[in-house]
Amino acid sequence: MAKITEKFLLERASPKTKTLEQIQTLNLSLLALKCTDLPVKLLSRLQSLESWDLSGNRLEELPPGLALPSLRSLDLSDNEMEDVTTLDSLTGLEELKLDGNIYITVNDEYKLMVLLPKLKMYNDKNIGSRADHIRHTSSSILHDRVVAVWATKFGVLETNSREKVEDMERDFVATAQCSIQFGPNSTRDYIRWRVGILAKEYLRSLLLQRTEEGDKSQEPIITKENNVINSPVKRKQSLLHQDLQLTPRKRARGDACSSPPKDSPGALHLTRQRAGPAGAVRASPRKAASAQLAASPAVKTPRKILVEQPPPKEDSGRPKRRATGDRGLRTSTATPVDREGSPRKRSCIRPQPPPREEGQRVQLKPLHVLQCHSKQNSPEDFSTALWACAFQPLPHGGGDTSCSTAGGRLVATCGGDSICVIDCETGLVMKKYKVPGEEFFTLGWSTVQMSRDNGAPARPCAVLAAGGKRGLVTLTHPQSNVAYGEFRASRKALSTLRFSPRQGNLLFTGAYDKKITLWDIGGVDSQYRYKASQLMVLECSSTPLHLCLPPASPDTVLLAATDSGLHCFNTRLSPGSGKRAAEMEITFPIYKQEDKEHSYRTIDGLGFLTDDIVASKCHLQPSIYLWSLGQTRGQAKRRGSVAAVLLAELQWATTSVPYLSLSTCPEEGYLVCGDDRGRLWSYSLHSLLLEDNHQRRERVPPTEVLEWPAPLMRNSSPVEVPSINSVAMGQGLSYLVALSDKNMVVVWKREDSS
């Protein structure tokens, strides 16, 4: 990759000239350039530049502050563009090419027509009449609706303090974005973005009108752009020059619907209430596939649930299908949440948890409750069981930036016939994918390589796999809204799946045919063609429920929690791997208490706390075992059963409800498991994990038991207390997500005291 210098620009320019100011045409194609490789100060000297070729590079956006007043033609084809709002400074652009940028959607095309007022040719097609309609007719309709929202839900301009102006703008923008529906569902992201701009512009016009009327009795007002306080006599100038620079980036979706109308129908409130008695013992729908679900209509906004903070305690290449976008409604909590919708810079830095002293309890507060897996989007659906959730892992460097854009806040959930990708901070359902007739039981994230055309280097992209009662693995690329394939993993329903953390193309699937299969799903090309091939089959004695790969040896060892025990498999690939049986079964002390009425061999919770320490839970067991995998395997002399070397036992709920899985956060030494009364039992195990010589002790009590937030439907009876089927914790325990058997996703946020 060549360094962009003045000499290099002169060499690539035509006609040949001696100064940058005289260059009219510039070719910087096929140089593998990234945004950081473009020196803004140097390029801004190209005041006569009319045509610029940047095709075949690795640009995700253009650098801010790039001023090229004479530029008329720009070729950005075959790049990695995903943020078109960075082109807003090129207002003289008339021709633009974005072919081959897989992340560009119709929403981005509409944004470009607004941001670039002179744009006439897009990807060699004349869009003049269409662009004029978007810029004028559609914008006029949206403006009228924004004014109507102000008139009906606000009407009074409060400008006597900076805080009131900030709150007013935030609430007005959020309410307008939630209230205004316009055009097809495929353009919802653009409508939301455009309404946000128009709402801010309208509020500024009201403020400007107040200033022109000579209302000098108001307090100084803050302007969002510079975040400084201006006196009333200076407000006019600051408001006039803000233009469109406050428009949010494509992937920064922080402008959630945080302040919906008070009369919004079907809203849910969360209030403190006593948990009711435990429900009857359930039979998992994983054992008996549920009836086929009817096809759902167009996706609607998930029902909103408001949180009331409890009082503080004294102490193979199938045809591509586009996933539908969906928007949740963010809740109002005591947690300070950024609701400005302002541009956010993308960063791949992993979020660091607040420093925590030994023994300090992690503070988790309920932030959102979403009802986003409803059958036919019905707000009355409290029967759909949700089964699996997983946070999108942060990238280790380069490649797919969807998760870094959201700061590691994206979590995928599945249940019923749908998969959702949720932004935990805003409570928005960013993506939603439905398969009529399916019932999803399991999902997982991974990273595979995507090859590109024109010899460009492959790039990693985050993919999501999910499976359920049809026995098919569904592969999606959420960032591009593409469900790019399905392949049959079993003739029976899939119960679990797990990607290898070391080789992202390797996928283990467990099914009700009592088999675990290892697949190589390979990578994808620019057209999302792929090939899945079977590598190995592991035979179990019963249905596998959870699969775990030891962090220190994910290529050679697999732990499988099944309906009849915990089994350890050798997964080392070798020629003619074929079928394999378990190397050993790992047994637990509670097995000795079995009788005709009680069987404890269903292992329905499994996870690693360290490279060696495993947490597991048996059905009907009122505790959770911590044990050493290394010591347990070390005492095995031959195939057969071996007793787990226990290190500790954690006190847990007494319940007969099966399939309540646990989750671990190794970096924080934290473990969480839900129960059948909507509670989350959390354990801070830092000090225990640091011990050199673990000794069996009395049962360790939970660090904290988080009570069910207790939602209430407006004008309806309380929602029955659910069972918590699945739990997931984000990077650094910044968020915790719990899934219930009554179609509710609960998001908790970390709030450690300083």
**Count of alpha/pi helices:** 10
Counted beta strands: 43
Provide mean pLDDT, rounded: 80
* Broad structural category: alpha+beta
**In this structure, how is the largest beta sheet organized?**
7 strands, mixed
From the N-terminal CA to the C-terminal CA, the straight-line distance is 46 Å
What does this structure look like?
- The chain is α+β, with helices and mostly antiparallel strands and 754 residues long.
- About 19% of the residues have low confidence.
- The strands form ten sheets. The chain has a seven-stranded mixed β-sheet. A five-stranded antiparallel β-sheet has the order 12-21-20-19-18, with no helix packed on it. Strands 22-23-24-25-29 form a five-stranded mixed β-sheet, with no helix packed on it.
- It contains ten helices and 43 strands.
- A hairpin with a 6-residue loop joins strand 22 and strand 23.
- Helix 4 packs across helix 5.
- The longest helix is centred in the N-terminal third of the chain and has 26 residues.
Describe the protein's topology.
Blueprint: H1 6-12, E1 13-14, E2 25-27, H2 40-43, E3 51-53, E4 73-75, E5 95-97, H3 106-115, E6 121-122, E7 125-126, H4 128-153, H5 162-179, H6 188-212, E8 221-223, E9 228-230, H7 232-240, E10 268-270, E11 305-307, E12 321-322, E13 364-370, E14 386-391, H8 402-405, E15 410-415, E16 418-423, E17 428-434, E18 440-450, E19 459-468, E20 472-477, E21 482-488, E22 494-499, E23 506-511, E24 515-520, E25 533-539, E26 544-548, E27 557-562, E28 565-570, E29 579-581, E30 584-587, E31 603-608, E32 613-618, E33 623-628, H9 629-634, E34 640-643, E35 645-651, E36 662-665, E37 670-674, E38 680-684, H10 686-690, E39 704-706, E40 711-713, E41 724-729, E42 735-740, E43 745-750
Parallel strand pairs: 2-3, 3-4, 4-5, 5-6, 10-11, 25-29, 30-34
Antiparallel strand pairs: 1-2, 6-7, 8-9, 10-40, 12-21, 13-43, 14-15, 15-16, 16-17, 18-19, 19-20, 20-21, 22-23, 23-24, 24-25, 26-27, 27-28, 28-30, 31-32, 32-33, 33-35, 36-37, 37-38, 38-39, 41-42, 42-43
Helix pairs in contact: 3-6, 4-5, 4-6, 5-6, 6-7
